[in-house]
Amino acid sequence: MKTVDLRGKNYLKSRELELLIKRSEMEVEQFEESVKNILKDVKEKGDEAIIQYTEKFDGVRLKPEEFLVPFEELEKAYESLDEDTRFALEVAFERVKKFHEAQIEKSFFVEEEGMILGQKVIPMERAGLYVPGGKAAYPSTVVMNAAPAIVAGVKELIICSPNPNRYTLATAYICGIGEVYRIGGAQAIGAMAYGTKTIKKVDKIVGPGNIFVALAKKNVYGYVDIDSIAGPSEILVIADDTANPEWVAADLLSQAEHDELAASILITTSEKLAKEVKNILYNRYLVNFSREDIAKKSLENYGHIFIVDNIETAIDISNYIAPEHLEIIIKDPFSALEKIKHAGAIFLGEYSTEPLGDYVLGPNHVLPTGRAARFSSPLGVYDFIKRSSVIYVNQEGFKRVEKYARKIAEAEGLEAHKLGVEVRLKNI
Questions:
Q1: Is the pLDDT of residue 257 over 60?
Q2: Is the four-CA dihedral 316, 321, 322, 328 of positive or negative sign?
Q3: Active site residue: 179, 324, 350, 354, which one?
Q4: Are residues 198 and 238 in the same domain?
């Protein structure tokens, strides 16, 4: 983990900061052609391609009738969990669902003289959730992707997950999703986007995955909508000398254990805190740590501690990085909130640890990565709805605005646009 002293320096000229910013520029060329070929096969061959690629990548030979996990298996998986785990997942689902209910948009209508203008809010009809599978267990991914869709009013939800484990299946049961397919990778994205004889196409695909899944989502955009093309995870902690170094170190490690490309960043005004956090990480927390290899590589390549002159500079650097997760552990964390411009999720205060947000607090943990927080938002109810404009004009309203429309049509040289207005003038 690199320590960089930026006191008295221009952070924009920091080489270490620039390398950190560019870390998400993944080399995708080597995978792009392969993904396009998979998608082309799925589009043309349907179930046959799904069978072929599932056997090739997951080592499982499936028949089309075996794609769908029987509902009895979902129920069995739910019943197999110990009572505390079941209850924890149910609490998480209810909390996340309740939070997202505050995001519900309503249709509206505005009446003018001779006009009624409005907007109709319509939920998408069918959405596909991608959940990584195999040895990994991601029940929280099911909760975070399903809850806003359910609150939005999406009637049909499906899950695609390669070799889904019991936690994924049990959480699908908790969320009321009965359509779970045991397929993954780019072929699953293709199946959801184009549809096959066995799998009905969806309107939107959400959820994380590896480089093949990310590229597949990118390539099917337009056939369907997608949430985002997620990059490696990241956390940035702004801390002063009041912060507990053990807590800060634990939060940095919680991101480093995700994968080797994850970034764990501390920006602090305290040189003492910087040294203590680094010492605790390497000499205590990483000793006999179950995911030591992954975490060490992450910290060595993308772990940074920046020492700065003041909290204002720390906030400026944070806004420049636009992190996925931002923790503010200073004496008065709310004093910094107004100055934060770019962050996926903002955690204020020493007890607001990022892992709580990952699982049970309520706000969504599907967040923009790779500086995308500059222009995008967490997954929410708004991702699963469409808006249609509603327009009614009577003769009185027509008379109020027709001449302006004709003038603009003339300016644009669109004769038929002008004609559409003029033919109605004959009735007035």
A1: yes
A2: negative
A3: 324
A4: no
Helix (H, G, I), strand (E, B) or coil at 237: strand
Backbone angles phi, psi at 338, to 5 degrees: -65, -30
- Dist. CA 153–CA 378, nearest whole Å: 18
> Which string of b and e fits 203-241 if b means at least 16 CB within 10 Å?
bbbbbbbebbbbbbbebbeebbbbbbbbbbbbbbbbbbe
Query: Is residue 181 domain-shared with residue 313, that is, in the same domain?
Result: no
Binding-site members for substrate are 233, 255, 258, 325, 358, 412, 417
Write the pLDDT tens digit of every residue in 191-207. 999 999 999 999 999 99
The overall pTM is greater than 0.85: yes
Tokens standing for residue 23: 């870390």
Q: What is the CATH number of the domain that holds 279?
A: 3.40.50.1980
What domain range is 304 assigned to? 2-25+232-362
Cα 281–Cα 282–Cα 284 angle in degrees, nearest 5: 70
Distance CA 203, CA 194 (A): 10
Decide which of 319, 338, 362 is a domain's last residue.
362
Residue 44 lies in a domain: yes
pLDDT tens for each residue of 410-424: 999 999 999 999 999
Number of structural domains the chain divides into = 3
Buried b (16+ CB within 10 A) or exposed e, 398-408: beeebeeebee
Strands of the sheet with 385-393, listed across from one edge: 108-112, 115-123, 385-393
- Considering the domain architecture, whether residues 283 and 193 belong to the same structural domain is answered as no
Q: Give strand pairing partners of 224.
A: 221
Dump pLDDT digits (tens) for 119-157. Answer: 999 999 999 999 998 666 789 999 999 999 999 999 999
Phi-psi region of 231 (alpha: psi -120 to 50; beta: other; left: phi over 0): beta
Q: How confident is the model at residue 19 (pLDDT cuts 50, 70, 90)?
A: confident
Q: Is residue 381 part of a domain?
A: no
157 and 48 in a common domain = yes
Is 254 a member of any domain?
A: yes
Residue 382 lies in a domain: no
325 is catalytic: yes
List C-alpha distances in Å: 25 to 50, 235, 339: 30, 17, 28
**Angle formed by the axes of helices 415-425 and 395-412, nearest 10°:** 150
What are the φ and ψ backbone dihedral angles of 324, each rounded to 5 degrees? -65, -55
**Is 270 in the same domain as 245?**
yes
**Annotated active-site residue in 325, 327, 354, 365:** 325
Q: How far apart are CA 157 and CA 29, in angstroms?
A: 32
CB 342 within 8 A of CB 374: yes
